[in-house]
Amino acid sequence: MKYVRLEPLIDPEDYLDKLGAVADALPPGAREFATDPGHYDFGSDRCVKDLTVEALGYDDDHDRIALEIVFGPNPWKHTERLTVRYRGVVDLSLQVGPKPLAGRRLGSVVLDEILPHEQGCRHEIALHAGSIVVVAADLTAVWSAPTP
């Protein structure tokens, strides 16, 4: 992460300060998601912190790659799941770290950071046991009720 601090304490303030200056350079969907008031509010049920990766899938239509990541809710914090769909993916990195003590293999989301990129945007997601980085033309983020 370039601006979000993960250690010694999780702190998005430097990123939020920078976001004001770079938000206009983000594609529309990325800008809407990054600037959502609940995104970095740890008390909000729309904060990405503590979500877990439930599914990751892609579609390759020979011209463009689309990617979808479904994040499941933390039952003590979230009422909805988050689905992030990326279009025009040009780079994808998935790093798997040491296994967490409990829960899903990648652990839960620590925090994320979305920055402008010459191809559109760069979305970095820090997890307790890994990370995901996607560079794409744009993204859309949709909160929805979890399926039973």
Automatic annotation (TrEMBL):
Domain of life: Bacteria
Protein name per its UniProtKB record: Immunity protein 50
Organism per entry: Streptoalloteichus hindustanus
